[in-house]
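During the reporting period the student researcher (J.K.) took over the structure-prediction task from the postdoctoral fellow and processed the backlog of single-chain submissions. One of the processed entries is reproduced below for the supervisory committee.
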Amino acid sequence: MERVSKAYAEHVMSERGWLPLVPETFRTEVLRRSQLLHFAPGEPVFHLGDPPGGVYGLVAGTVSASLAPADATPRLILLGVPGHWTGEGCFLTRKPRRGELRAVIETTMLHLPLDAMDQMAARDPAVVHHVALMLMMTVEFLFRVIHDLQKPEADRRIASVLQRTTWIGEAPIPLTQSEVGVMANASRKQVNAAIKRFAEAGWLTNTYRSIAITNPEALRRFAEGDGAD
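J.K. obtained the following structure tokens:
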């Protein structure tokens, strides 16, 4: 992937996700204070238990987020979408990282350090509300994950996971069948059978380490119980 510039990153992040929803003056300061960082495939952005830090916004590439309750091992939950920001928990709680964020492919992110966030909040108490909005956007996404995991049929859970990943864009999804199984709470056998079925229906194509969705609307209808059984 070609290295992106700070100007390009600011353009992308101003139009997607969290930043378009906050006041322009705050958005401008976030972008001015943010650092442009590049991560190689497999490189961690942060680990579970790392000291408190700032927030990260995904500009280009793909990241995996693994989360868990206290004293549990993190499990793969989602893939990040360009425009998405995360890491706000440390600012709000002052506690260590509660999950792991890792680059799946070559990835570019903006990083707003914690001390910069503190300086902004000291001058303007509304900064806390703006960061809380980031948190609530994450919560809304996790509501969707919980909703999907409560579907009793494994193939509909698998379809839900695959359909959610299309939010990343049209590029192939860099997931193995085992990783899809973790995200869908399904066995490898169930994932293999579902992907074969979806491929035969023309909804996706599958290779060893990636899945390309060709008909996300059909997957969505099936996942919600409106498709063919």
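The committee noted the following: Strands lie at 35-39, 44-46, 55-60, 63-67, 75-79, 85-86, 99-103, 107-112, 204-206, 211-213.
J.K. will present the remaining backlog at the next meeting.
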